[in-house]
Each structure stands twice: as structure tokens, then as C-alpha cells.
Specification:
Shape: globular
Keywords: Cell cycle, Cell division, GTP-binding, Magnesium, Metal-binding, Nucleotide-binding, Septation
Protein name: Probable GTP-binding protein EngB
Function: Necessary for normal cell division and for the maintenance of normal septation.
Pfam families: MMR_HSR1
CATH architecture: 3-Layer(aba) Sandwich
Bound molecules: guanosine-5'-triphosphate, magnesium ion
InterPro entries: G_ENGB_dom, GTP-bd, GTP-bd_ribosome_bio_YsxC, P-loop_NTPase
CATH superfamily: P-loop containing nucleotide triphosphate hydrolases
Strand content: 15-25%
CATH class: Alpha Beta
Distance between the termini: 12 Å
């Protein structure tokens, strides 16, 4: 995919603030700090389009990024951020739920996990939801630059077993830092938005 243009389109908490057009959207869900915003930046060759942080809980709104004026990446707030208060957690849950259940533009929900860690029960819940709504069930296992190549397969297997995935090809090891598997992910995305 040749990226000619990428911009922040809008920031939303509720449907009234969602973009009002019918461009297709791919949304990224996952635990806080796994690297969703970094993933978006690396895919569009930007360093600071989506704001990232070493501390979890950076993205707290739904951020819509428009690419080549033709489709959007949607950065969702991360879940499982332990330091957040109960009311904050409930509020984010609602923000995410409303988008996922009501958004007609949505073509695919991609689960982003950290390849170093076994998915949590919240990841499993999210993944089962994604599958039950008929999405493909693509998993981006990011930060792969942080483990040796000899461990990729072992960690992919842990993710596969925990999430109950049959087709290993659905799990794509990725590195935003080293741009590992970027073209492969674009190939998958191109099919979704075409
Ligand atoms: P929330 O907005 O809190 O949900 O987090 P997020 O999932 O958007 O994570 P973010 O992209 O902000 O990244 C969290 C931290 O992980 C940052 O310090 C990133 O630099 C780092 N990081 C993300 N992806 C990678 C990667 O592929 N490799 C390495 N080495 N670090 C990464
Ligand atoms: Mg983020």
C-alpha cells in the first residue's frame, strides 16, 4: 500500500462525533499499552500521528485517522488499565461498546496483543465478541522485536491456544519499531477495504 496521506479526522466519545460519511473503517482493540497507537503510526510511516506513551492509558477517546482520503484506522482506548477508577473503566467500556455495536462503517475489528504475554481473560472476551460478530479474527502480535526469533512460534502458539484460534495464519507477529511484517499486514487490510 502506498501511503500518500494520513490525517487525524476526528476524536470522539460518542456517535455524534463520529465521521458522517461511509468510508470503511478498521478498528484496533486491545489492552492498554500493547502498542495499538504505535501500530497505526508504523503502518502509515508516521512517528507521531497517533499519540503513544510508555505509560498505559494514553488513548482515552476514539481517534479516527483517515488514510489516502479513502479509508480510516480507528484507535480505540485500551482496556485493562489497572490504575483507572471503576467509573473511568465503565465509561471507556461504554465508549468502546457503542462504537463496536453501532458503527456501520466498521469492516474489521483487529485484536492487538503483546507477543510476550499470554492474552488475558479480557482479551479472550474481546476476541470472542469479534468472532461472534462475524469479523475475521485477525490478531496483531506486536513488539516481536523484543523476543528472539526462536521464540516467535512458541509465543504465537500460546496466543493461539488461549484465544482458541484454529488458523495460525490469523496471528501476525509484528514490530512497530522494526516494521516487521508491515507489508504482509497491508495485504490483509487491502482485501478488507477494497
Ligand atoms: P493505550 O493508548 O494506553 O491503550 O496504549 P497503546 O496500545 O496505544 O500503546 P502505545 O502505542 O502507546 O505503546 C505503548 C508503548 O509500547 C510505547 O512505549 C511504545 O513505544 C511501545 N511499543 C509499541 N509497539 C512497539 C513495538 O513494536 N516494539 C517495541 N520495542 N516497542 C513498542
Ligand atoms: Mg493508544
Amino acid at each position: 500500500m502506498k501511503i500518500i496521506k494520513s490525517d487525524l479526522h476526528s476524536i470522539a466519545v460518542g456517535p455524534k462525533q463520529y465521521p458522517q460519511d461511509d468510508l470503511p473503517e478498521i478498528a484496533f482493540a486491545g489492552r492498554s499499552n500493547v502498542g495499538k497507537s504505535s501500530f497505526i503510526n508504523s503502518m502509515v510511516n508516521r512517528t507521531n500521528l497517533a499519540r503513544t506513551s510508555g505509560k498505559p492509558g494514553k488513548t482515552r477517546t476514539i481517534n479516527f485517522y483517515i488514510i489516502n482520503d479513502s479509508f480510516r484506522f480507528v484507535d480505540l482506548p485500551g482496556y485493562g488499565y489497572a490504575v483507572a477508577s471503576k467509573s473511568e473503566i465503565e465509561k471507556w467500556g461504554e465508549i468502546i461498546d457503542r462504537y463496536l455495536t453501532q458503527r456501520e462503517n466498521l469492516r474489521e475489528v483487529v485484536l492487538v496483543v503483546d507477543i510476550r504475554h499470554e492474552p488475558t481473560s479480557q482479551d479472550l472476551q474481546m476476541y470472542q465478541w469479534i468472532k461472534s460478530f462475524g469479523y475475521t479474527g485477525i490478531v496483531i502480535a506486536t513488539k516481536v522485536d523484543k523476543i528472539s526469533k526462536g521464540n516467535w512460534q512458541k509465543n504465537v502458539k500460546i496466543i493461539k491456544d488461549k484465544l482458541g484460534i484454529k488458523d495460525t495464519n490469523l496471528i501476525i507477529p509484528y514490530s512497530s519499531e522494526k516494521k516487521i511484517n508491515k507489508e504482509k499486514v497491508w495485504q490483509v487490510f487491502e482485501e478488507i477495504i477494497s
